Amino acid sequence: MFDAQVLFRGCIVFSPWYPRGGDNCRQTMEIVHVSGATLKVELFTKNKEDAGDGANADAAGTPVNITSNTAGRTTQEWLSRSTIGLKELVRYKFTVTGTNAFDWVLFRMLTPQWFNSVATAT
Fold first, then answer.
1. 20 to 30 A from 35, CA-CA: which of 14, 87, 94, 122?
2. Which of the 8 DSSP states describes residue 73?
């Protein structure tokens, strides 16, 4: 979905909005190479008619963002069962932290895997 992006310490970047593909999302971030930085990925959501930046999908519950400072893959699920739920549109917020001005991370986001919630019989 996002191939080989380099971000430096202090960068805060939002991805474009795109339509959700189901009730729930399983997302994988792959850090290809890192030099002293930590990358945090958060999911934001809103309906098409809503103005503004949208709401953090983790805001009302236990945070389930992706955070890593080592090369490799990290996977996380965002579920519609949360208080906010996933609305019509979603996007990512990437935040890079570090201790030195030259800290950086090279990463990519793999295509999200969408799946729907299944109602249980009562």
1. 14
2. E
**CA gap 106, 6 in Å, rounded:** 4
User: Based on C-alpha coordinates, what's the Rg of the chain?
Assistant: 15
Q: For residues 21 and 23, give the distance between their C-alpha atoms in angstroms, rounded to a whole number.
A: 7
Element (H, E) at 75: strand 72-78
pLDDT value at residue 83: 55
Q: What distance lies between CA 18 and its chain's CA centroid?
A: 13
pLDDT digits (tens, 9 = 90+) for 36-64: 999 999 989 899 999 988 888 876 555 67
Please answer whether residues 31 and 105 qualify as being in contact, where contact means their C-beta atoms are separated by less than 8 angstroms: yes
